[in-house]
Specification:
This protein has about 160 residues and is of the alpha+beta class. About 15% of the residues lie in helices and about 30% in strands.
Length: about 160
């Protein structure tokens, strides 16, 4: 029977990878701990060690009516943050959109004029990031306030009868 030198046996054993019961290699003792959302050499391929928590669901405004009395539909592809309506038909809407301030107002203005409302006043405030407009339909008046809240893509819309 042939015998192996201790040095040769050491080299053979040192080159082997220890495998745990799931078939995945055991990490080296000096390996850094895995970080959240990454894969590790000790986990099966494609398996996350600690997956990140799911993102909070966003509420799409695309099928929402911002004001039922006016039939004012939400701005396309916007994300509704808050909608508060009162018993007299007034409402406050906070939403996010990648659209420009001018595009958002043009959309609201177009929705109102298509329903017969006529603008009687328009006043831009604060470097054209806020405006107040007044509309009239028959004997009814509507005050529209639109505020682009910084460069965040967040808008606040107030509709007051």
């Amino acid at each position: 029977m042939k015998s192996f030198s201790p040095f040769l046996l050491f080299l053979v054993l040192a080159s082997c990878t220890v495998v745990n019961t799931r078939g995945a290699p055991v990490p080296a003792l000096n390996a850094p701990p895995p970080t959240i959302g990454t894969t590790s050499a000790s986990s099966p391929v494609g398996t996350a060690v600690n997956p990140p928590p799911p993102a909070a669901p966003s509420i799409s405004s695309s099928n929402t009516t911002w004001n039922s009395q006016l039939g004012l539909a939400a701005y396309p592809n916007s994300q509704l943050i808050d909608l508060d309506g009162s018993s007299n038909g007034s409402s406050k809407v906070v939403f996010e959109s990648r659209a420009s301030f001018g595009d958002v107002y043009a959309y609201i203005h177009g929705q109102l004029t298509s329903k017969g409302w006529q603008r009687t006043a328009l006043d831009f405030k604060t470097n054209a990031t806020k405006l107040e407009a007044t509309y009239r339909l028959g004997s009814r008046n509507l005050e529209v306030k639109l505020d682009a809240q910084g460069n965040s893509g967040r808008f606040k819309l107030e509709l007051n009868f």
